[in-house]
């Protein structure tokens, strides 16, 4: 009886799962963009640097704790509820690949927390250009995960993933050109 009730809720679980991952990705995109700006604080006038660092750190913690992390848990909760109501999906290759990508994305999420801590301490090892590249990483995850969920054919996904990698390389080339243009301005 419980399975029948939960199966009828599947569509709602799916809707909340989508809301969760959209919010999670929005948080990750914004968070890493702030890493870029935080890394560029040293280019600002001396009298502004301490205040700007403090403000970026405050904003980063808020996005991480109030938006990105709750959204990650929300996404996982409703994704797991979907799997619970339809466990046969776990036998398909695409969901296994998606779950691996999601685990790597969770690693990226907590890597971002470490970046916040390091920037707060003033010991960040990455520069603004490297953060700009890091900001494109969730885009690749987003495209790969959505394509897997929609296409579901693993062979087609492999072709699409090749396209995603080419897209990622194009983003890298664009970022390098943008950096060169900014340096020459």
Automatic annotation (TrEMBL):
Family membership, please give it. Answer: Belongs to the HemJ family.
UniProt-listed HAMAP family: HemJ
UniProt entry keywords in alphabetical sequence? Cell membrane, Heme, Iron, Membrane, Metal-binding, Oxidoreductase, Transmembrane, Transmembrane helix
Tell me where on the tree of life, at the top rank, the source sits.
Bacteria
Would the keyword Cell membrane turn up in this protein's UniProt record? yes
Share what the entry says about its subunit structure, partners included. Answer: Homodimer.
What organism is recorded for this protein?
A: Lacihabitans lacunae
What pathway does this protein act in? Porphyrin-containing compound metabolism; protoporphyrin-IX biosynthesis; protoporphyrin-IX from protoporphyrinogen-IX: step 1/1
Which positions does UniProt annotate for heme binding? 17, 98
| The name this protein goes by in its record | Protoporphyrinogen IX oxidase
Topology with regard to the membrane?
Answer: Multi-pass membrane protein
Q: Which gene encodes it?
A: hemJ
The answer, when asked if rRNA-binding is one of the entry's keywords, is no
